[in-house]
């Protein structure tokens, strides 16, 4: 992993992945992109990490997107499908991934936020898809119209203008807006709360939301029941009620 520009650290059961190029507004150059793929794979295989948090160094930018200087030097035309991690498409994990947006999230930074399971944003965070202003495309934004109202998605795509964290929260792109000084503490608390829950139940819940979105109700219920059937049959499904009856914390085995 590109340790110089992408940091991976444990905070209890939570893996914090930090893009560390604050002098370049955490732009996603080749080294950062490789580091993000490596960090995500490491998290997926890490038995000590139940939740991953993705953030940027400093308090200015989560990420300003692709490194335009590098892009111009290389004459990049159509980016390959694996140009950037897109959680749920070419990278990711069955375990939850949270974005802690500590500043602007533009272009590729917006892409990363869009594909996270939960998004916590500092009050000063800003979100934009400015590709139209630099003559580029945003095919990666195809899921956006299913995450926020289509007209709001079109406004972002057609104008390239940023929106505030409060506006992003109102649209449903952001889970919670937090004072900047409290962002990491609040995200860590949420991640630890998730990590304390039964891992099979958590992963099934994530899978259900991702796979049933847009399905007709009958199909959605059938798919949800298929996803949760192994959870009901697991040892943890017996451990939870037993721990409650015995007035003790559950000891999850993930089986």
Automatic annotation (TrEMBL):
- Which GO MF terms are attached to this record? lyase activity
Domain of life, per UniProt, equals Bacteria
Q: Does the keyword Lyase apply?
A: yes
Task: Give positions of region: Disordered.
Answer: 236-255
InterPro entries the record matches: ClpP/crotonase-like_dom_sf, Enoyl-CoA_hydra/iso, Enoyl-CoA_hydra_C
UniProt-listed Pfam families: ECH_1
Give the GO terms filed under biological process for this record: fatty acid beta-oxidation
What keywords tag this UniProt record?
Answer: Lipid metabolism, Lyase
Q: Which Gene3D superfamilies match?
A: 2-enoyl-CoA Hydratase, Chain A, domain 1, Lyase 2-enoyl-coa Hydratase, Chain A, domain 2
Family as reported in the entry's similarity comment: Belongs to the enoyl-CoA hydratase/isomerase family.
Name assigned to this protein: Enoyl-CoA hydratase/carnithine racemase
Tell me the classification of the organism that encodes this protein: Bacteria, Bacillati, Actinomycetota, Actinomycetes, Propionibacteriales
């Amino acid at each position: 992993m590109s340790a110089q520009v992408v940091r991976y650290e444990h905070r209890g059961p939570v893996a914090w992945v930090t893009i560390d190029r604050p002098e370049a507004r955490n732009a996603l150059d080749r080294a950062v992109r490789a580091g993000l793929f490596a960090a995500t794979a490491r998290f997926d295989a890490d038995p000590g990490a139940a939740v991953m948090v993705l953030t940027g160094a400093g308090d200015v930018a989560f990420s300003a997107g692709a490194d335009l200087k590098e892009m111009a030097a290389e004459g990049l035309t159509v980016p390959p499908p694996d140009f950037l991690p897109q959680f749920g498409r070419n990278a990711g994990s069955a375990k939850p991934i949270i974005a802690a947006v500590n500043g602007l999230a533009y272009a590729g930074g917006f892409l990363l936020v869009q594909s996270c399971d939960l998004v916590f944003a500092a009050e000063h965070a800003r979100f934009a898809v400015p590709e139209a202003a630099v003559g580029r495309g945003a095919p990666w934004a195809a899921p956006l119209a299913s995450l926020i109202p289509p007209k709001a998605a079109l406004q972002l795509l057609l104008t390239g203008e940023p929106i505030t964290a409060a506006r992003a929260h109102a649209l449903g792109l952001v889970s919670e807006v937090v004072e900047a000084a409290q962002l990491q503490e609040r995200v860590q608390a949420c991640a630890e709360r998730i990590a304390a829950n039964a891992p099979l139940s958590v992963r099934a819940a994530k899978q259900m939301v991702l796979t049933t979105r847009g399905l007709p109700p009958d199909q959605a219920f059938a798919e949800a029941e298929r996803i949760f059937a192994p959870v009901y049959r697991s040892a943890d499904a017996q451990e939870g009620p037993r721990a409650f009856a015995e007035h003790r914390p559950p000891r999850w085995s993930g089986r």
